[in-house]
Prior knowledge:
This protein is an alpha/beta fold. It has 13 helices and 17 strands.
Amino acid sequence: xxxxxxxxxxxxxxxxxxxxxxxxxxxxxxxxxxxxxxxxxxxxxxxxxxxxxxxxxxxxxxxxxxxxxxxxxxxxxxxxxxxxxxxxxxxxxxxxxxxxxxxxxxxxxxxxxxxxxxxxxxxxxxxxxxxxxxxxxxxxxxxxxxxxxxxxxxxxxxxxxxxxxxxxxxxxxxxxxxxxxxxxxxxxxxxxxxxxxxxxxxxxxxxxxxxxxxxxxxxxxxxxxxxxxxxxxxxxxxxxxxxxxxxxxxxxxxxxxxxxxxxxxxxxxxxxxxxxxxxxxxxxxxxxxxxxxxxxxxxxxxxxxxxxxxxxxxxxxxxxxxxxxxxxxxxxxxxxxxxxxxxxxxxxxxxxxxxxxxxxxxxxxxxxxxxxxxxxxxxxxxxxxxxx
Length: 388
Ligand SMILES: *Cc1c(COP(=O)(O)O)cnc(C)c1O
């Protein structure tokens, strides 16, 4: 009997320990974990550098109010701005807090320049920006919003890839376009570079803001720190979370100087957001990700993974429809429902997770070894053979 609410359909498996790319279950089995908490444990389980950082900080100070200066947060914000488009950072505790704060920043910007009626956010239908009341209606998914009315107003939608409907949906009330650079839950669908550049152009022309949700695809997962960096586009606001905490709850909004103008004292806050413990861990994650050649290696190893998966696709053209994604955010799209395939992978000791459109999402830690990818490839091949 479980006393947890039933809002998750949990797999019947629990873990007692993790190390790097591996998880050890309570019933004594060893799994290759290519879920990693859904792109959260960017440096794998029980990373020694992160253990050191949390131990050290836990002996000094865990939490102080944002009413005081927090040096660890000053340091993390400085590093994030030095390496990215951003001029300022606002720390949160989760992805949805970061996306919701991004919406607030966009609205507040137009309010502060005397255009309070410019407050609507344009999003992709069936995208994913989190589970608060506002963000479920931002995502525009029937499944996520069902039973949670009244509808939170202020969001308009266009279909992924439908450029005509996007242009039509922009009105003089539109404040921002908010999209995921790579739609994670939505099926690991990448917005092509030329589309991102076109989006930026449209935003410039209409004088609206561009919010790129990199909660899942950001912080090195794509092989660059941000997935949008491949396109050379500069967004105005970027929410991040998942990977930046390496397993510790941590989110942030990165923004440029222009939009930061609206965020005056008292306009937003978070009790836990940016506390010393979270900030120290964030800094320890960046110590690794900003290391010379770390991201180059993510690019190299993910290229290898994609090419091996494409070979499997060629061998099983009636089973696998497409290998999708960017870097180590990988989607294996089947022609039919993926549930049983994921179960068989798990039976063969490889953990993966579903996404929309019959996609199996594969999310190794960013420091995954080539030998571990080879094991995964072998298991995927074996299961393909079974299903063929
Ligand atoms: C996971 C995710 C969120 C929400 O993050 P939480 O930490 O679960 O609140 C928002 N946007 C995207 C793109 C995500 O993948």
